[in-house]
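Anyone? Bumping this.
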Amino acid sequence: MGAFQWLMKKITKTFGRSTNALFYTLLYREILKEINEITKNEEDSLIILREMGKRAAYESCERHSAIFKFMPGNPKKILDYFEILWVVVFGKELDDYSYEEIPKEESKYNDYILKISKCPICSGYGQDKEDTFNFMKLKDKETEGMACGLCGMLESVANFILKVKRNDYRIGIVEQKCITRGDDCLQFICKIYDYKEWQEHTAVRIQDKISSHIRFEEGIEEELVQETKLDIIDKLQDVISIDKLEEILDEPLEGIKERVADIIRDKLNMEPEHFFDYFRNYEDDMIRIIGYLGTHLLNEYGGLLEKSLKNETVAKIFGYLYKQIKDMTLLFIPLDVIRDYNKLLVSFLDGLAPVEMVENIKLFSAKDTIKYLFEGVKMAFENLGIDFSELKENVWEELKKEREDELIPSEASAIDRTRENVPKIINLIQEILMIITDIFTLPIRVLISESHYGLKTAINSVVSEEEGLYGSIRERFDNIFDQIQEIRR
Amino acid sequence: MNYTREELIQSEATMNQVRNSIYHLARFMDKNGVSDIKERLRRMGKNIARTYINYWKPTQVVNISNLKDYITTIYQKVLGSYVSIEINESEKLVIVRDSKCSLCKYHYEDIEVAGCEIIIGMVSELITQINFISKDSSSVFLEPFEVKESRTHGNKSCIQIYKYKIGGSN
């Protein structure tokens, strides 16, 4: 599994609202039973459950649309990333599944069959007396099974991604096998339709699919995203989707340079050398701009940073963190390491930027680079709402002041909760520090390994994905996500 | 071999989509002329509890001395919520405040019932099921009373109220 795929799954899982999985499954069962209580027709109940699943997932996707912009933008790749869809919908890892591609002549994309050996929705169904929805009553063999609601959710998430990625294809996911109905696994067939076919496919009204005289509101017509509605992330999504990022991670430095050159040619309609020429003799400003734009780019994700910094306390915390990291960087990171980063920047610009500019950057000391970078970040932070003039010398003085003002609540339960969280926060900070240390060893590995001329080689340079630096970073992120999950509770 | 329900108890699942489904179910009920939506949601909770108790029983008896602990345990272990609980002895009420209710998150203008009606049905039934087996005279029995506030109705947190009685008498 790629690094970004893994990261996406972790983020989705950590920031979703989790409950016990048995509660989830039983609630799902009860929804189906209540639908059936109204329809009195098992086939119709499953059709309606599927439709409810579709709508529920669509509603959720619309609320968190930004995260889906980083997903790959074509149907085949979405199915390659099926595990993410599963985690988005269910929040649980997909244990064991396999693919089978069904060739489809005269069509751009093939169909796929997905076999999932364990289905949480079907688990233990029929063992308890409250499992009263009777699958034996189903007459039509084509009817979907217990996981039809889940299937609707998966289809909805997949098509929402294709919609935000402005793709003209859509995926139809249908449950073909169901463990509760006696099959050996949960099986989905995933058919890919072009937009016209999809409209025809979905044109049949729910009301016409069901035989009982119940009323069901038809779905909202899906519309394609108009160019004028696109924000900056939309425009960048072709470059920064997880599949593209993983391709970049798989490519060596030369590949990355080529890709950057292509982006400049493609998006800015100019040669890379011409583009970098604008910064000739202003190389220090270029580094400041990297820090400045980097911070603003972070903010582009739903304006989260800016919104957070509107809160005075959060703004102060960020301010102190900035100050702390700035002070600590030169203390903790050996100048050699920073020099290596400078060399890496030089190697990166060599061939892309004018020779004179590359020579000027070579003259920068390690301290200069760090200083310019932090200046850029500070400018961005000021822009986003941090008033650095209001900050004390260090965070402890600030805390002392707050206590005198009695701003920290003295209620016993709040103190208990804080005490409970302190070790978790310390663990979190520790993991973040460790990860920073791990990451900072990267350029040394890149530069000293003559034969290992690339990021990925360096990341994996120790032994393997599990035991190498990549594995170590991944393990630390696992810990970080676990700590965040604990603290969020 | 598929998962067992015992195995599911050990893991977590993300509730977002199923939570939304509850409100689509409520709309579906309403559209089809169901008038007792609240009672039906509570019934769903009761059914969940009756199955759940077969796989998870953290104590043998619930009485007034461990009532708060037991409710806290249910909310934490089953629903992933940290709640504050108040017992009003004069009116025999248990008041639970959940600021991150797992079944209510967004304000729906068109919905009159709160998703956490399911929760009050489930919690009271879990206690009933345990004490029904124990037959202890100090046992506490809970009945769903009302969802006083809910994030579904635009409130900041959900306030779920139960009526209790000890040993089957008022």
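Late reply, but here is one note on the structure posted above: Chain B touches chain A through 51 residues (CB under 8 Å).
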